[in-house]
TrEMBL record:
Residues 232-254 are annotated as: Disordered. The keyword Repeat does not apply. GO terms for molecular function: cadmium ion sensor activity; DNA binding; DNA-binding transcription factor activity; lead ion binding. The keyword DNA-binding applies. One of its GO terms (biological process) is response to cadmium ion. Residues 1-94 form the HTH arsR-type domain. Keywords: DNA-binding. This is DNA-binding transcriptional ArsR family regulator. PROSITE patterns: HTH_ARSR_2. PANTHER family: TRANSCRIPTIONAL REGULATOR-RELATED (PTHR39168), TRANSCRIPTIONAL REGULATORY PROTEIN (PTHR39168:SF1). It comes from the Bacteria. The lineage of its organism: Bacteria, Pseudomonadati, Pseudomonadota, Alphaproteobacteria, Caulobacterales. Pfam families: HTH_20.
């Protein structure tokens, strides 16, 4: 009897281009309908139904039925972690001669990696939290310091006490576009949840890119010292005057 993990079966599920597009779309952390995923995959609803059935049977997706709609999401954080690792590995492969699009630039700027933040924004947050002694990130894992716990609790993050949580509290996650750490685990998820709750971040209409709102520009700077102006590129929208002024004040303080 073969007791080894069924790597070939999982690889075959992910390796189909349509199924890979479906899984990538669900990396945004939201549940999507079969119709939405058919559009993302570029296939007919009937073909998408077959792909979704295989992914669900393979324990890569979960299905929730609400009325007439069937919603799909990634089955677990472990699935998201596996996909992010594959994306990072694939990004180091031979370059494809395809012009960069506006969507590519938006994903590189700020996106969700399942339930936490990635791209330049995610890496900037990780850098700021590390520089202030709130987090320690390394190849061996991540640590939330007492100072960091107090700061994030004041921010409104809900973090469990003790070691009884099922999910890792703080975890470095290699960002496939920046090739550096962003913050995963419960800490990363709570930072993202609270930023969305405060209206600092807004989801794009399609895909998993996110936009920083005017309130978010100021909030990120005041709370984390993240100067979004300094991490942006020419294609990003302009900062609010308040955020520009606050950035200047912080630089003078230093």
């Amino acid at each position: 009897m073969n007791r080894h993990p069924y790597i070939a079966e999982v690889a075959a599920l992910i390796g189909d281009p349509a199924r890979a597009n479906i899984l990538s779309a669900l990396m945004g952390g939201q549940a999507l309908t079969a119709t939405e995923l058919a559009h993302v995959a570029g296939v007919t609803p009937q073909t998408a139904s077959g792909h979704l059935g295989k992914l669900t049977d393979g324990r890569l997706l979960d299905l929730a039925v609400q009325g007439r709609h069937r919603y799909y999401r990634l089955a677990s954080v472990d699935v998201a972690r596996m996909l992010e690792g594959l994306m990072a590995f694939a990004a180091d492969g031979a370059p494809r001669h395809r012009p960069r699009s506006i969507r590519d630039d938006a994903l590189a700027a700020a996106r969700t990696c399942y339930d936490h933040l990635a791209g330049r924004l995610g890496v900037a947050l990780a850098d700021a939290l590390t520089a202030r002694g709130h987090l320690i990130l390394s190849d061996d894992g991540g640590t939330l310091t007492p100072r960091g716990r107090a700061h994030l609790s004041e921010f409104g993050a809900i973090l469990p006490d003790g070691c009884r949580q099922r999910r890792q509290l703080c975890k470095p996650c290699l960002d496939w576009s920046e090739r550096r750490w962003h913050v995963g685990g419960l800490v990363g998820a709570e930072i993202a949840r609270r930023c969305f709750e405060l209206g600092w971040l807004e989801r794009a209409k399609e895909g998993r890119a996110i936009h920083v709102s005017r309130e978010g520009e100021t909030g990120l700077l005041r709370t984390f010292g993240v100067d979004w102006f300094g991490t942006r590129t020419q294609g990003d929208p302009p900062l609010s005057p308040e955020a520009v002024g606050l950035a200047g004040d912080l630089k003078l303080d230093h």
